[in-house]
Automatic annotation (TrEMBL):
Residues 152-302 form the PurM-like C-terminal domain. GO terms for biological process: protein maturation. Belongs to the HypE family. InterPro entries: HypE (IPR011854), PurM-like_C_dom (IPR010918), PurM-like_C_sf (IPR036676), PurM-like_N (IPR016188), PurM-like_N_sf (IPR036921). Residues 33-137 form the PurM-like N-terminal domain. This is AIR synthase related protein domain protein. PANTHER family: HYDROGENASE EXPRESSION_FORMATION PROTEIN HYPE (PTHR30303:SF4), HYDROGENASE ISOENZYMES FORMATION PROTEIN HYPE (PTHR30303). SUPFAM superfamilies: PurM C-terminal domain-like, PurM N-terminal domain-like.
Amino acid sequence: MKVGKLNWDDLKNIIDDSRGAIRNDVRIRSGIGEDCSVIDFGEYECVVSTDPITGAEKNSGKLAVNINCNDIASAGVEPLGILVTILAPEGSSLEDIKSVMKEIGEETKKLNVEILGGHTEITRAVNKMVISCTVIGKGLKNKSIATSGAKENDDIIVTKLLCLEGTGIVVNDHEDKIKGILTHEEIAEAKTYLNSLSVVREGAIAGKFGVNSMHDITEGGVLGALWEVAKASNLGFRVYKEKMPISHVTEKICKKYSIDPLRLISSGSMLITTKNGDKLIGVLKEEGIEASIIGKIVKQKGVLIEGNIEKEVLPPERDELFVLEERIM
């Protein structure tokens, strides 16, 4: 199989065939596109999510904290604790592990998240460090937002810029090869993108505002996230390429390596559907968070519109970051 997430059909079959017990106290359970599971604890509910970091060489601790806390934020609740597993390859030094944990400690302090525990080992099972985290959040009963909650005629909003994570990873990991494509100023700008990966603030704001659906835009980019929201909600979408917020720096890199930025990993941007997009954008901007309406939720299939051309959006395949990494080497 190719590097990257399993395709939708294979993953769905595995989930359906291996679900295990079904408990009444699980309100939102695992499924395609769902960022979190939600467990009923009486007056409150527990929100949990887990994800590894495998595609980055540098800043892996920072990425691990943010992508997992972002999943919790997509439910509209605040992350409170994280468990960290580090699998380091043979030959790793104690300083390598300390460096990653320092990053994790710094990021969790910023987000007011406690490190609850975890596991660390040196193993021949990996050829580079793998970090896997599980994050826990707490919210009032029946208030957590599901990916599957999108409604027909909802406005579709994305926050900040798309491709922050993908662009930041490539420039930080391959600066020597990017120097011929970007100026010194553009390289410096791209390096700052990894400082904007958290969507915890916009998740909390949107949760309080009252929205129908949220989804952290990760592997598969914005088109992958849109497809997952639509599939989970049994709906479609119409979005416009010219409305996608993409930086000039990202566009230059993607053009050079023939990469589709709309399918490039995009942690740092939240996908939100709501009946009143303009009002939510105003609320977000009051808090210093830029946001854009890129289209609408509809009954029919998912469609990307570019000029006068409409193209159906197919299920997400492996992220363009892995393609880019192959072409840049």
